[in-house]
Amino acid sequence: MPEPVATPTAPPNTTSAVSALLSAVYDLDLGRITSGREAFETTKVMITAVSALCYQLAVCAAHMDRLGVAKQRDNGKTKALLITMGLAPSVAERTLRIGLGMPRMQLLAGYAEDGVLPAEHLDAIVSGVAHVARRALDGLCDEERREVEVELIAQAMSGATPKQISTKARELGNTFAAETGGLPAAEDRSINEFSVTETSDGRIAVRGDLDIVTGTRLQTAIESLVDPRPQPDGSKDARTPGQQRADALNLVLEAAANNPTPFVAAPHTDLNVTVSANTPAPATLQWTSALTQATAELLACDSKVTEIVLDGEGVPLKMGEKKRRFPHHLRKAILIRDTCCVKCGAPSWMGECHHIAYWSHGGPTDLDNGCLLCASCHAQIHASDWEIVMGVDRHPWLIPPTTIDPARKPLPAYNRRTMTLDDRVAA
């Protein structure tokens, strides 16, 4: 007899399966738990289930995005659709970020499916790998991407918080940037944003995304003026920390507006640079995270810098003397000679004094070793192959990288590039 032909069965409907899962959750009766051990074990299983379900939600959200569901429904975006479906805005953004980033991961999906890592850790790993890839000049090859992923997963499995995973990713990004010629995001001024807008009730909303140096200068200026004021009866300051910082920002703005000599006022900041004594960990600033060598050299040009060396337990071993770069009289002389940024011509009041021979390499702080650069050009000089030399005319000259001029023909300072013939004769 011929063997019976098996009737193909339809694959289980995903929506029905999830609905059945939801029904099972509704049927739970946790009030019957009678022992602490049972409560502990049940909680542990539920946390794993929530983590696994958050991952599956991210996968489903990514499918919706790729299929254009939001555009088909109301010509909107997937994030907005997720919010209307009940997710909080931050959760919707995180869910979509995990789902869209997961296909580029090589190992993370296995941990996510098992519910080993919660959504916050998945997001930190996915975002961390993407961050490192953007910092490498030519991106990451598959092997490098896998190594970064393994490093961040190991951090998560060792008990690191999402913030600590992100910090590790920034350190790896700095390493790849240094090795490949890329620029760390924390030091990339080209992506800075800052807006001041009026709200519907007539107030002013301030929003910014700043590089590490600009942000640290702002934070240091504000924190240095945060001054808790006791009440007349001796009780504690009734202002919240946010209100105290807002009042400090007002003091910063008043000081800037009332500065009688803005032309020669240097944008100095008192910065603490922390260096590890017995590990290769990168230097850090007081309020933020790791710094590259290029930015450390940039800060040494025109800031108050205190170097603090720490032992393995984070205890200071040595504190260097606070040193102010380019005092008032030298800065004024440089401003008179250069008149503007020597590279792009930005106004002098935007300028910072740059050591032509880096101070960190032993360069002196004097007129013949200093020139004026705006903040953007200053960062570029430290992070690129542009060079500045002092000419026999005792004026700075710029040497472009070979990618701009293969012959590397020196360019005079901006104010001398734009001189007229009559100006040159008079000079």
What distinguishing features does this structure have?
3-stranded antiparallel beta sheet; 427 residues; 16 helices; alpha+beta
What can you tell me about this protein's structure?
This protein has about 425 residues and is of the alpha+beta class. The protein contains 16 helices and twelve strands. Helix 2 (about 35-65) crosses helix 5 (about 90-100), helix 4 (about 80-85) crosses helix 5 and helix 5 packs across helix 7. The protein is globular and about 85 Å long.
* Spans of at least 5 consecutive residues with low confidence: 261-269, 420-427
Mean pLDDT rating: 80
Number of strands: 12
Query: By helix and strand content, what is the structural category?
Result: alpha+beta
- Report the helical percentage: 40-55%
| Helical run tally | 16
Largest sheet: 5 strands, mixed
**What global shape is seen?**
globular
